[in-house]
Amino acid sequence: MSFTGTQEKQLREEEGTELIRPKSSHHLLAIKVENKFGVLSRVAGLFSRRGFNIVSLAVAPTEDERFSRISIVVDAESAPLEQVVSQLNKLINVVEIKQLHPDDAIEAELLLATLKVDKSSLVGIEKTVTKYKAHILEKNDSLITISCAGTPTKLDELENLLQSYEIVALHRTGQIALPKLEFLAK
Fold this sequence. Notes:
This protein is of the alpha+beta class. It has two domains: 5-19 and 106-178, ACT-like. Chain A, domain 2 (Alpha-Beta Plaits, 2-Layer Sandwich); 26-104, Alpha-Beta Plaits (2-Layer Sandwich), CATH 3.30.70. The protein has helices spanning 5-15, 39-50, 81-89, 119-131, 152-162, 181-184, and strands spanning 26-34, 54-61, 67-75, 94-99, 105-116, 135-139, 143-150, 167-172, 176-179. The chain is elongated.
C-alpha cells in the first residue's frame, strides 16, 4: 500500500502515531556477506520464514569487491537477538555478523523529499533546509526537491517538520552504520 505525504499524515493523525524509526527495541546488525548472486534474497527469505520483522535494510559492496555489507534493523520483539544471529550464521555466504549498539556506532541515513511550494511556503522550506544542513536538488515555481543526510533522529525531526507542508513524495534509504573508530581497533 502506498500513501502520499498528505494521506500518510492524515493516517498518523487518525491513529495518533508518530514516525516509527529504529529505537532501543530494535537490533542494528552489520552483516558482511559474500558478494554473490542471491545472497540478499536468502537473508531476506530467512527473516520472512522466521517471522522476523525488518524495520530497515540497506546493502552495498564493501571496500573489498568480494564482499557486501548488509545493514539491517530488526524488531527485537519479533526476533530475539540470539535467534537472529543463530539463523544468520547458518547461511553459507555470511562471513561476519556484528551487533552495533547506537552508542558504539556512526549511523546515517538519507532522506529525499519533493514538496509543493508557493511564495509563502518557500521561505519556510528554505529556512528548514538551512537549519538541517539539507540541500535543494531541484526547484521550480510549484515544486522543490530536497535531500538531507544524517542520523535517523535528525531525519525523524526533519520529516516531522516537513509534514506541515504538502509532501508530493518522500523516501528514506534506511539506516546504515559502522562501528566508531575506537571499536574498530578491538
